[in-house]
Design a protein that fits this description.
Largest sheet: none
CATH superfamily of the largest domain: Tetratricopeptide repeat domain
Strand content: under 5%
C-alpha cells in the first residue's frame, strides 16, 4: 500500500494520513487485510513518535481483530503474527516474536511464497538479534533467490543490510562494505530510508565508512536525520513496557503514573481517564508501593 512506501521514505505525516483514510474505509467494509496492514503501519509510526498509548492501542487492535472475528481466514492470523513479530524485532525483543517465524522450515510450511519474502525479513532480524550470524549467512542465499524471483525490493534491501551486519560481526569487513553498498544503491532511487533506520545501531559506522560520494552523503544524512527520533521512540516504548513488566504496574496504573509525572492533579487525571478521583488515589498508592517511591516528583525518573 502507498502508506508503506511513504513510511519507508520517512514521510511519516503523509503515511499517517493515508493510514487513517484506509482504516476508515476498511473498518466499515470488513476489509480485514487492509485494516491489519494500515494498523501495522500506524504501529510503526507510533514507535517513531515514541507514543506509547498509540502503540498499545494499535497492537491491541491487531490482536482484537484476530481473536474476535470468528470467520477470519487463517492467513489473516498469520499476517497478524508477521506484523507483530516484525514490530517486536524492531524493538529488539526476540522473545516476543512468534516461534514459528524463528525457524526457516516452520516458516516455509506456514505461509505461501508471496508472504515468504517479508517473513524472511523477520527471521533474518531474529538471527541478527540473537547473534547467530553464521546461520544467517548460511541461509541468506535462499532469501536472495526468492527475492530475485518475486522482485522483492524491500526484502532485498533488508537482506543486504543483514549480510553487511553478519559479515562485519564475523570479521569480513570488505564483504560488509560490499553488501551495505548494494543495499544503499538499491534503496537510493526510491529514497527508501527506513530499512536502514531500523538497523542503524548496527550499521552507523559502516555507513560512515562508505560515505564517499555526494549522492551517498545525501542518502546517509537522511538516514541519520530519521534515526534520531526513531531511536528515541524505541527507547520510550521499551521503557514504558518495562514499567509494566519489571515493576508489575497494570495498564491503568501506568496510565495514571504517566499523567502524574506530568504534574497533573488527581482530579485532572480522573477527568482525562474518565475514572473516579478515588480510583486515582488508590492507583497512586499502588504505584508508589510498586516503584518504591514517596513523591510524584520521583515519577519523572521513570518517564523522562
Amino acid at each position: 500500500m502507498k502508506a508503506e512506501v511513504l513510511y519507508n521514505r520517512g514521510e511519516i505525516e503523509s503515511a499517517e494520513i493515508l493510514c487513517h483514510k484506509a482504516l476508515y474505509m476498511a473498518d466499515g467494509r470488513n476489509q480485514y487485510s487492509i485494516y491489519i496492514a494500515a494498523t501495522f503501519i500506524m504501529t510503526l509510526i507510533s514507535i517513531y513518535k515514541g507514543a506509547n498509548d498509540e502503540f498499545k492501542e494499535h497492537m491491541n487492535n491487531m490482536t482484537h481483530i484476530t481473536e474476535n472475528t470468528s470467520y477470519l481466514p487463517q492467513h489473516m492470523h498469520k499476517m497478524t503474527d508477521i506484523c507483530k513479530s516484525y514490530i517486536y524485532s524492531n524493538l529488539s525483543s526476540p522473545d516476543n516474536m512468534c516461534e514459528w517465524l524463528k525457524d526457516y522450515k516452520q516458516l516455509e510450511l506456514s505461509i505461501n511464497f508471496h508472504s515468504l519474502g517479508f517473513a524472511n525479513i523477520i527471521l533474518g532480524k531474529y538471527l541478527i538479534l540473537i547473534g547467530d550470524y553464521h546461520k544467517f549467512l548460511g541461509i541468506s542465499g535462499q532469501f536472495l533467490g526468492l527475492n530475485h524471483i518475486y522482485s522483492y525490493v524491500i526484502s532485498n534491501i533488508y537482506t543486504y543490510i543483514y549480510l553487511s551486519i553478519a559479515n562485519n560481526e564475523t570479521g569480513e569487513k570488505e564483504k560488509s562494505h560490499k553488501f551495505i553498498m548494494m543495499a544503499v544503491n538499491l534503496a537510493m532511487p526510491d529514497r527508501l530510508y527506513m530499512p536502514f533506520v531500523h538497523n542503524y545501531p548496527y550499521i552507523n559506522m559502516l555507513l560512515d565508512e562508505i560515505n564517499t560520494t555526494k549522492d551517498i552523503s545525501f542518502f546517509v544524512k537522511n538516514i541519520q536525520r530519521l534515526s534520531k527520533p526513531y531511536e528515541k521512540g524505541v527507547k520510550a516504548i521499551n521503557k514504558a513496557g518495562r514499567l509494566l513488566a519489571d515493576y508489575g504496574l497494570t495498564v491503568r496504573e501506568a496510565d495514571v503514573a504517566k499523567l502524574a509525572a506530568k504534574r497533573l492533579t488527581n482530579k485532572e487525571i480522573a477527568d482525562q481517564l474518565f475514572i473516579a478521583e478515588s480510583t486515582v488515589k488508590s492507583n497512586m498508592k499502588m504505584i508508589f508501593n510498586k516503584l518504591e517511591i514517596n513523591s510524584r516528583a520521583e515519577l519523572k525518573n521513570f518517564f523522562d
